[in-house]
Amino acid sequence: MPDKNVDIIMDEKKINRALTRIAHEILEHNSVTSSLVIIGIITRGAFLAKRLAKIIADLEGVEVPVGLMDIGLYRDDIQSNLDQPIVQQTDILFSVVDKNVILVDDVLFTGRTIRAALNQIIDFGRPKTIQLAVLIDRGFREYPIKADYVGVNIPTSREDKVLLHVTEKEKSDKVSIIRNFTKKKSTKGGK
Questions:
Q1: Helix H segments across 75-144?
Q2: What confidence tens digit (pLDDT) does each residue in 71-128 have?
Q3: What span, in angstroms and rounded, lies between the C-alpha atoms of 120 and 105?
Q4: Fewest C-beta in 10 Å: which of 7, 40, 127, 149?
Q5: Which region holds residue 18: left if phi is over 0, alpha if psi is between -120 and 50, else beta?
Q6: Cis peptide before 43 (omega within 30 of 0)
């Protein structure tokens, strides 16, 4: 029986269509593909970054370098979070200096993840530009950050949780919203 608090808002076809549109927009905005590099934020942003690079290769016949980034140590809540971050691998095997960096993430929410990613990219050098591509923009920014390329804008409440499932990890592609997730979580156990 389906959960009435879970809405499936994107399936595989819609996700592929959104990524293809984003790839076209990136190419329209960056006519010189030799200066492009793509960096995906681990975990799901990394999968989307690889997919965007493949779409660009199919469209233009150009292999765009792809890097993967773990922003765990750059988060601004690392001191206040009781759990130690699980640090994954940052894998950027190319120079970002004077490049047009396409930073890729799955869901843009408060902007804190993107702020951390920007700090980490700058530690690798000074790019010509950093452009942000996200599959989903759900609003509620806490930092002045806006995506250059957006798959879909989804109206949510702060209590909702937006989840991207990808074939590489969950064996299917879909985006779902769990309504009132934080309210349900805080009422468990009588708290």
A1: 112-124
A2: 987 866 655 554 555 556 889 999 999 999 999 999 999 999 999 999 999 999 999 9
A3: 14
A4: 7
A5: alpha
A6: yes
Q: Judge contact between 23 and 60, C-beta under 8 A.
A: no
pTM of the model: 0.90
User: Who contacts 179 (Cβ-Cβ below 8 Å, separation ≥6)?
Assistant: 5, 6, 7, 157, 159, 160
Environment class of residue 21 by beta-carbon count within 10 Å: exposed (0-12), middle (13-18) or buried (19+)? Answer: middle
Block residue for tokens 């942000």: 132
Candidates 101, 188, 174, 98; CA nearest to 135 is 174
CA-CA distance, 7 to 161, in Å (whole number)? 11
Neighbours of 94 (CB within 10 A): 12
Q: Which two tokens stand for residue 141?
A: 């920014």
**What residue has token string 């590099």?**
37
Q: What is the CATH number of domain 11-75+87-156?
A: 3.40.50.2020
Q: Residues near 99 by Cβ (< 8 Å), separated by ≥ 6?
A: 35, 36, 37, 127, 128
